[in-house]
Amino acid sequence: MNSILFHHYAICENYIYFFEGRKSLLGKLNVETGEVSYIQNIKNYCLEDGEDMDFTTYRNGKIYALKKDGTAIVIYNIKENSCECLDLKCNNNGTENFAYMCEYEEKLYVFPQKLDKVFCITKEDELLELPINLSNKIVVCAQIIRNKVYLFAQSSSMMYIYDLRTSKLESCKLNCQVKDVISCTVYMDNIYILCAYGNVFVYQLKKRQVDEIRIIDNKHILDEMRSEIIVLLDSILVFPWCSGDIEIISLKDKSVKVFRDYPKDFYFYKDVGVRKFHSQCENGEYYFLLKYFNYLFKIEKRTGKFIWTKLFKGSKEDELKIALNYGHKNFVEPAYAIREFIGELRCLPNVENAGREKKGRKIWDKLNDKL
Question: Which end of the chain is more exposed for a tag (fewer CB within 10 A), N or C?
């Protein structure tokens, strides 16, 4: 199984759709069999070579995905196998431009991190730009509860509430400052907030106050950052950023245990710059994909049971042919994935022809000897 790099994904029936980050291909994964394939011959395919995608969701037979550079939203029509792009002009902050995307009353809402406007995509895919009545606010994550979106800054004693009915934003002062916010989730009308270095808070809507639940680790080591949080039955699951394991906090006694019950042949390529887990909730189950991974795992919300599905991918040569058909040639792998890089080189023509005295041939032979 060759590794896959992605940022977000959407679920439609028994398939997970994702945009592969290195070759900018649209892939799909069968959640029952683990089979991974890439979609060919997409009409008007509008991803450039090497482009990455951000928040991705499914609605009415279409996949909606935000470009990480903030320039557009890509809409893929599954039945017609075609793409279109809507220009957003939201490239304010490199590759971190968006805080949240959600659906409400058949409309999609996109919240930039620089909260100077909100984008709305109607049922007919018309793009609307809604002005914000409070300016110069920076937010990093959010959650929707009924008609309101609760938005959190990275480090602040303020929270912002956007009413989807009135298109108004209000400021809400919290009873304490919450630092290094990175993710949040909703459970029983409470919002659980995860901070990058292990602090976990809960915002109680009825009381309109924040309480600290647990400090897992406050060493502020980049390699030990956290990335995502979910609440399941009587536990909080905290997911690592780029290394480490899942931590499980008991809501009863606040104790912490570490999950290490992985399949024997499970692997993950560690990279400080790459977020390890991404989750999606669908049909009563949480689905989890890992970047550079060989398993999908899901958690049944009703029972808390972990289910692992091994992934199977087609040949590297077929994958490269699809990428080349779209005009994509960005095949460079990270240094720690050198085996796969060599595998890709084997599929390309004339790789050994480089320079005088056949030095390219000698390098190639040496690499092959090491594999």
Answer: C
